[in-house]
Amino acid sequence: MQAFQKNSDIFYLLSEGISEGILVVNAKQQIVATNSAAQEMFGYKKGELEGKQLEILIPGRYRTVHEQHVKTFIEKSEKRPMGGGQNLSGVRKSGEEFPMEAGLNPFQLYGATYVMALIIDISERKSIEKELNIKSEALKSSINGITITDALLPDRPVIYTNAAFEQLTGYSNDEIMGKNLRFLQGTDRDQPGVEEMQKAIDEGRSCQVEVRNYRKDGTLFWNEISITPIRDENGTVTHYIGIQDDITKRKKIEQERLYWSKIFDESMNEIFVFDAHSLQFIHVNQGALKNIGYSLEEMVRMTPVDLKPDYNEARFRKTIEPIVKKRVEKIEFETVHERKDGSSYPVEVHLQLSQLGERAVILAVILDITERKNYTEKLERTVAKRTKQLSEALEVEKELNELKTRFLSLVSHEFKTPLSSILTSITLLAKYTQSEQQQKRDKHIETIKNKVRYLDKILNDFLSLERLESGKVNYKIDTFPLSKVVNEVVYDANMLLKAGQKIQYPHDIDDIDIHFEEKILELALSNLVHNAIKYSPEHTVIEVQVNRNGNTLEISIIDEGIGIPENDQKHIFNRYFRAKNALLDQGTGIGLSIAKQHLENLGASLWFESEENKGSTFTMQIPISIEK
Length: 628
Ligand code: ADP
Hints:
By secondary structure, the chain is an alpha+beta fold. The strands form five sheets. Strands 1, 2, 3, 4, 5 and 6 form a six-stranded antiparallel beta sheet that branches. The chain has a five-stranded antiparallel beta sheet with strand order 8-7-11-10-9, with helices on both faces. Helix 13 runs antiparallel to helix 14 (438-470), helix 14 crosses helix 18 and helix 15 (482-494) packs parallel to helix 16 (518-534).
C-alpha cells in the first residue's frame, strides 16, 4: 500500500495512457490501485475503489469461487489471461453486470505480492457478436434461398448458400459451392429475366427478376431472384447477395389470371363490367371497345345508359334491380347500342351480379344480334315467299280439281255418246232377224266394235294418266322390230279412217330394230295417228315417215287436217287442253300430254309443227338403243 502511494505518480502516468482498465490487488485481495479507465468501467469515482475488497467488482454468485481462484493464482504467481476462455463478468457500482476480459500479471514490489489485472469491457463486442450471430442465424434459417457470390473471383462463384436454397434447388451445399449460379437455368438461357440480371451485374446495381430455373431432378420452378451488390470502402463490388423465392405457385395463378384476362379481352362478344351502384364502367374488353368505338379512358367515365338510346337512368336501374337485389341470378333483354359514331346495332344483353373485391359489380355480356336480326328478317321474307308459293300452289291445285271435275263430266259425256250409240246398234241388231239382213247386222256390229274400242281407248288414257300421276309406271325395255308396232297401229287405225282417207306407210323400216318400251311407242304412235285421222277431213292422206338421224329415229305423222290455231299451240301438251277448232270432235285432251310425258321419261321427245287449216306434223324422236 505504502509503496503504491509512494509511486502513485508513476503508476498514474503509466496507467492513464491506456484504454484498458487496470486494477492492482494485493495478496489479501484488496484493491490498491486503479486507473481512471477501470474506475469508469466499474462506475466508481477516483480513489473510491482503493482499499476495497476485490469481490465488490465481482457478481455475488462468483465471489467464493473467485476468491479461491485469485488466492491460488497469487500463490502460483504466473502470468495468464483470466477466465480461461470462460465468459467473465464484472459488476458495476450500479449493480449492472457486464462481460469483460481480464489479463492477470502477478508481480513483487518491496517484498509483497500484487496482481495487476488488465480489464477490457467487452459488452460492445459481445453485442456485435450477438448481433452477427443473430444475423447469421437469420440467414441460415431464412425460408428464402440465400446465396452469396464472390464478385472478385472469376465467374463469380457461390461462397455461401443456406438450407432453404438447398431445399429450393434440390442440390446440396457441396454441389453448389464454387459454381456460377447459371447452372440452375440449364439450357433455358434465353429469358428476359436472365438478360436483365446480367445487365444489372454488369452495371453493379441491384435488381429483382423472375427466371425459370430447374431443380436437380429436372423440374421447373419459377425463381424470383433479388440480387444486391456489396461494396468495399472503395466502392468496388466484392459480393452479391441473392435472395431466391420459389414463386411457381404465384406464377401459375398469374398465368391463369393472364389466361382468363386474355379470354376476357379477346372474346368476340362484348364484355363490360360496371359498378352495381354508380353504374360506371370499370372494365371493358377489346371486343367491346372495337365495336363501340370508345377508348377505355372514355368508357370509364360512362355508364351503360350512355350506350342505350332506349334507356334513361331510371329505366335502366329498374331493369337491373332484380339482380342488384339478388332476386334473380341473371337477366337478359334485347335493346339497341349506340356507337361513338352515332350508328346503332341490335344487341342481346346478359347481366349478372359479381363481386370485385369489396365492390358489387355487374358483368354484362353483349351479343351483337345484327346477323340474327337479319336472319330473322330473311326468314320472315322467306316465310312470306313460301306462303305466296303455297297459296299459288293451292290455286293450281284448285284449278286442277276443277279440271278434274270438268274432266269427269267430260268423260261421262264421252262415255254417254258411244254407249247410247252402242245401245241403238244393239236394239237395231235385234230387229235384223232375216238371214239376208247380214250386211245391216255387220254394219251395226262394226259400229259397236268402234265405239267399244273408243271407250277402251279413253279408259286406257285415263288409267295411264292415273299411273303417271301416282308414279306407278314400270317401263319394260325390249328390243323389237319397229315395223311390228307400225303395222299394228296402222292396221287398227285403218278401221277409223274416214271416207277417202289413206295412211301412207313408211318406207324401208323392215330391218330397223329398236330398243325401247314397246307399249309406250305403240301408245304414242296410235295416239298421233288417231288424232291425225280425227282432225283431218275425208279424202286426205296421213303419212307416217321414219327417218334415221344418227342414233335416233324420227317418226313423223303428217296430216292435211284442221291444224292448230297459233294461239293454242303453246298449250297443246297441257293436260285436258283442247284447241278451240277441235271442240266439235270427240276428245279428252289427255292423249298428247300422256304420250309426251312417257316419251320424255324414256329419253325420247315429241314436238309438232302446225298451221291452221293446212295440217300438222307431229314428230317423235327416239334413241335407237337406250340403255336401261
Ligand atoms: P284429244 O284429241 O282427246 O282432244 P289430245 O291430247 O290427243 O286430246 O290432243 C289435244 C288437242 O290437240 C286436241 O284437242 C286438238 O285440239 C289438238 N290436236 C291434236 N292432234 C291434232 C292434229 N293432228 N291436228 C289438229 N289438232 C290436233
